[in-house]
């Protein structure tokens, strides 16, 4: 966020979710510092190592939260109340989508208390809000930008956007992965399996909280039970079929 590398983590405290934000502190490599890292893992940046993390910020949401999507100047938190958007400097959260307009009545009825799974950037002016059964297009202010609702095949438990184009959904029953064109909503592929779960969202967040940054390196990876070995697990990397035309 804002050209900073930040680490977010959450803990539950009563009915609230407490978020801590840490910033890694990089030190120049030296023979004297090797083997003395506080966290046991090092990360190369500007020929240095992560020596420790310092407190950067903290905030709370007065409800249970279970996913977070980070953007350049803001963040979106998926909660039991819906999607809450805020900036770290002001911390004034507001809920999206805004469905108070009469023309949004049918969308409001279709949502019907569904659990939000994430907010993903499609362009500078449009985002996709993903819920368990549908996707809704909104503008940067959280207002509905399209009257159409993207209907899913199943009921999703995890979601990620890869390459700014492909929405990947993992079914709640763990029986398949659903891949859609996020821009026009068309179903592109259904991949069957058993006990399917998202391992890597392809954008560095993991667990389906990726922000969908276009051009970011990485690939979506899912795990599923091996089709022949009862105790075996396979990890599948999903790549784009360059020959497939939209």
Structural write-up:
There is one protein chain. This protein has 246 residues and is an all-beta fold. The chain is built from one helix and 18 strands. The strands form five sheets. It has a four-stranded antiparallel sheet, with no helix packed on it. Strands 8-9-10-11 form a four-stranded antiparallel sheet, covered by helices on one side. The protein has a four-stranded antiparallel sheet with strand order 12-13-14-15, with no helix packed on it. Strand 9 and strand 10 (134-139) form a beta hairpin. The longest helix is centred in the middle third of the chain and has 7 residues, at 105-111.
Which band does the percent of strand residues land in?
over 45%
Following the backbone from N to C, one meets helices and strands in this order, namely EEEEEEEHEEEEEEEEEEE
Report, as a whole number of angstroms, the end-to-end distance.
Answer: 32 Å
Oligomer designation: single chain
Number of strands: 18
Q: In order across it, which strands form the biggest sheet?
A: 4-5-6-7
Structural class: mainly beta
Unreliable stretches covering 5 or more consecutive residues: 31-47, 205-216
Main beta sheet, described? 4 strands, antiparallel
Please estimate the helix content.
under 10%
What is the number of helices?
1
Radius of gyration: 20 Å
Overall residue-averaged pLDDT value: 84
Please state the overall shape, judged from the principal axes of the Cα atoms: globular
């Amino acid at each position: 966020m804002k050209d900073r590398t930040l680490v977010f983590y959450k803990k539950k405290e009563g009915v609230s979710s407490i978020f801590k934000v840490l910033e890694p502190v990089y030190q120049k490599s030296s023979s004297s510092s090797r083997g003395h890292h506080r966290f046991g893992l090092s990360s190369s940046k500007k020929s240095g190592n992560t020596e420790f993390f310092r407190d950067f910020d903290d905030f709370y949401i007065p409800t249970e939260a279970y996913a977070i999507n980070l953007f350049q100047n803001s963040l979106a938190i998926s909660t039991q109340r819906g999607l809450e958007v805020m900036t770290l400097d002001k911390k004034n959260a507001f809920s999206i989508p805004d469905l108070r307009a009469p023309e949004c009545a049918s969308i409001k009825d279709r949502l019907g208390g569904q659990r939000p799974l994430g907010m993903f950037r499609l362009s500078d002016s449009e985002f996709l809000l993903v819920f368990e059964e549908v996707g809704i297009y909104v503008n940067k202010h959280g207002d509905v930008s399209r009257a159409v609702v993207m209907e899913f095949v199943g009921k999703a438990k995890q979601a990620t956007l890869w390459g700014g184009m492909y929405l990947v959904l993992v079914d709640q029953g763990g029986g398949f992965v659903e891949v859609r064109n996020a821009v026009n909503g068309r179903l592109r592929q259904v991949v069957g399996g058993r006990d399917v779960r998202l391992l890597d969202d392809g954008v560095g967040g993991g667990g389906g909280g990726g922000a969908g940054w276009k051009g970011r390196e990485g690939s979506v990876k899912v795990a599923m039970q091996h089709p022949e070995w009862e105790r075996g697990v396979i990890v599948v990397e999903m790549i784009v079929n360059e020959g497939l035309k939209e």
